[in-house]
Amino acid sequence: MRTMLKGIAASDGMACGRVYRFVEPDLTIEKRSITNLDYELNRFHQALEAAVSEIETIKTRATKTLGADGAQVFSAHIAMLQDPEVIGAVEAQVTAEHVNAEFALANVAADYEQQLKGLDNNTYMQERTTDLHDVIKRVTAHLLGVKLPNLSLLTEPVVVVTHDLIPSDTVSVDAKYILAFVTDLGGRTSHSSILARSLNIPAVVGTQDATSQLADGATVIVNGTMGNVVNNPSQQEQAAAQQKMRERAANMRRLATLRHHTTTSKDGVGVMLAANMGTASDIPNVLKNGAEAVGLMRTEFLYMDSEQLPTEDEQFAIYKQVVQALAPRPVVIRTLDIGGDKPLPYLKQKPEANPFLGARAIRESLAHQNIFRSQLRALLRASAYGNLRIMFPMIATLDEFRQAKAIYDDERSKLTTEEVPLGKIAVGMMVEVPAAAMLADRFAQEVDFMSIGTNDLIGYTMAADRTNQDVAYLYQPYHPAILRLVDRIITAGHAAGIPVAMCGEMAGDPIAVPLLLGMGLDEFSMGAGAILKTRQLIGQLNAKDLQSLVETALNSASTSQEVITMVQAAVPGVLTQN
Ligand code: PEP
Ligand code: MG
Q: Which of 210, 243, 260, 288 is deepest in the core (most CB within 10 A)?
């Protein structure tokens, strides 16, 4: 039966294909008594082999995206499944107690976990416990005859339907196998949506119940521009969707011709179009999409995709790789923005009632200076290899910026004494807290640049959690209150003679772009997938004419809808995204 699910339009484009449910199956184990021991032991060995072979595949994919070091954890998983002690203990229990293999395996794993708990080294203990859960789950799934989905095991293009998407789910994924994402949770600026956009994959998020409504293998059409999913579409609908996909591919090819161009409005005003990135594996995508700079490298993934704090040397290697590969382009690397919707399990943050208003970003860096210092040292050392800029997230007060800058200066002078070669580094801040936006003129006296983080700035200004789909309607980038804040920051920056960038999602939003150009924004940083479209759009705009649009939007508009209508009247043909 044809049904339609509604969600939030998170990443443009249409896709038609079969559903792959990326949902944890029921792995409940029941104790059974076994009569045919050979059969049971054989079943156990087959499950072990199948699990090892799957982990090998995941490892191969992960090596491509993360490098040999990043994929090392999978070698540890394989070693665990080949450990004669573990295998022997399961066999012994099956044989002695005549119980089913999955039951024996669960008991052996529980014993093993107890032993790990007795270890002194907490970090090691936690890592091994996570590894243990991972591998036991995989073998158990085989024994129970259920599928344990993993995006690294995909071999054909599918529509991935999942509860939510976290960075580690997609880190070793081959984008060519993913036609679209559909999630139960999330909003337009949640990390799953940002990921989808950076991979240029259509996505609908916040559907609430896609995972229970859509069956594995069902045909669906995902419309990431409108935010809906058609389940069991008619032949006609499928043909129309295929046609749309072909047109989109042709348009992408046309846009690709703009790759090596700079970005200039029709009347000759030049701006920088930059990419946001998360890991070194984004480098090819950044280059392919013609970015003139990187306006935001989020460093959280480096910390989140690891099971322990990355060392200074590990970070240095990655930052160096990024600035070197992208040189001479400027690359803005943001210090750790952990907390909020990005917890770091091994940091043992206290549960908070309001994580977005709690210990996150620069607050955590100032509270854990050893972590902050190690990141700054890694960044400073990498600065010799390219054009690096550093920025601090979530700055609310001048005092926070001054403290962070003082720590940076301290590490810089230590490295200078150690005669480590260092490049020239601009040090800036993100403006994403309304208090900082209101005081932008004062900040502008002390920072080298400002970058507007609208994802959080909108959330904090409208008092709406960016990950909560129930309040997603308040996520209004064109709301006059937001526009006034943005304009205020740009004006303050320019009055002090420093450049102002924007690295929130708003920077690549076609309704917002004419307004931002009219306000004089210097750099637009966005998911790489939006760069070429934005370059094309800016090339069609007259920056001078847009100043009167900005005046009217700032002074006469009272609602987002009024602003949208004004932009559409001033620039006919601009798409509405939300
Ligand atoms: C922002 O808040 O706009 C931003 C770019 O940072 P993040 O999305 O990582 O919080
Ligand atoms: Mg932010």
A: 210
Among 222, 254, 286, where does a domain finish? 254
Same-domain check for residues 268 and 244: no
The torsion angles phi and psi of 451, rounded to 5 degrees, stand at: -130, 125
pTM over 0.85: no
Please say which residue of 189, 220, 254 terminates a domain: 254
Averaged pLDDT score across all residues of the chain: 92
pLDDT of residue 123: 62
Lining residues, ligand 1, CB within 6 Å: 296, 298, 337, 432, 453-456, 503-504
Residue of 503, 506, 524, 525 to mutate, ligand 1, most atoms within 8 A of C-beta: 503
- Tell which atom from ligand 1 comes closest to the C-alpha of 503: 5
Q: Tell me what pLDDT residue 168 has.
A: 62
Please indicate, yes or no, whether residues 465 and 334 belong to a single structural domain of this protein. Answer: yes
Query: 191 catalytic, yes or no?
Result: yes
pLDDT at 148: 86
Whether 503 sits among the annotated catalytic residues: the reply is: yes
Residue ranges of the alpha helices (H) in 496-542? 512-519, 531-539
Domain residue limits at 319: 259-577
Q: Please name which ligand lies nearest the alpha carbon of 298.
A: 1
Residues (pLDDT < 50) of the chain are 576-578
User: 191 exposed, middle or buried (CB, 10 Å; 0-12, 13-18, 19+)?
Assistant: buried
How many separate domains does the chain show?
3
> Which of 16, 77, 142, 503 is labelled catalytic?
503
pLDDT of residue 347: 80
Residue 31 counted as domain residue? no
Q: Which residue puts its alpha carbon closest to atom 4 of ligand 1?
A: 453
- Work out the burial of residue 178: count CB atoms within 10 Å of its CB; fewer than 13 is exposed, 13-18 middle, 19 or more buried: buried
Please tell me the predicted confidence (pLDDT) of residue 51: 93
- Per the DSSP assignment, residues forming a β-bridge with 6 are 228
Asked if the structure places residue 566 within a domain, the reply is: yes
